[in-house]
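Box 4.2: Ligand-aware structure prediction
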Amino acid sequence: MDIEIQEYAASHRDLAWSFREAEDSEQLLESYIDLGRVWVARVDGEIVGHLQAVVRNADTWEVTNTAVAERVRGRGVGRALLEGAVAEARATGATRVILATATADVGNLRFYQRCGFRMTHVVQDAFATYRGYPPGIEVDGIPMLDQVWFERIL
Ligand SMILES: CC(C)(COP(=O)(O)OP(=O)(O)OC[C@H]1O[C@@H](n2cnc3c(N)ncnc32)[C@H](O)[C@@H]1OP(=O)(O)O)[C@@H](O)C(=O)NCCC(=O)NCCS
């Protein structure tokens, strides 16, 4: 499968359908969707995934949202998007890429560690209802409550 990664020049909101694959809070999504830079992955010309990254300080980029269409998951698209962002971050002189995910999503924990990220800390109750998350979300039977942060030193 040929995967092409390109920066997305149009409005990030055109990709809201893909952002929503990785964000259950409409309130939070609204607060960050327009920020930073976005890259898309295309297969046969069709967008099958995206990654958004925001510069946090001179050293650090944060991957704020990334998702791959369900039908092509497990075929290297997520890794290609992450490696593309890491290469861009390095090219601008950044020394660290950070990101967060739900501790409940054990598949994501494997994904990020297979892509060279290491855990730094856990934020309990990050997915609380006051931040716009619907109550009672579970991932594979695990309540989605806590968030784990990862970093990759470049
Ligand atoms: C997480 C996500 C972006 C991964 O994208 P992907 O294209 O499926 O990932 P890749 O095929 O590049 O996988 C890279 C490695 O991670 C592993 N991996 C990816 N998803 C995995 C999962 N759910 N469970 C276990 N391993 C997984 C792959 O097996 C592969 O490992 P390998 O090197 O041993 O073969 C995708 O599953 C997704 O869009 N999920 C829904 C949205 C989401 O959760 N986004 C992240 C929010 S923080």
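In the box above, the bound molecule is coenzyme A. The two ends are 28 Å apart (CA to CA).
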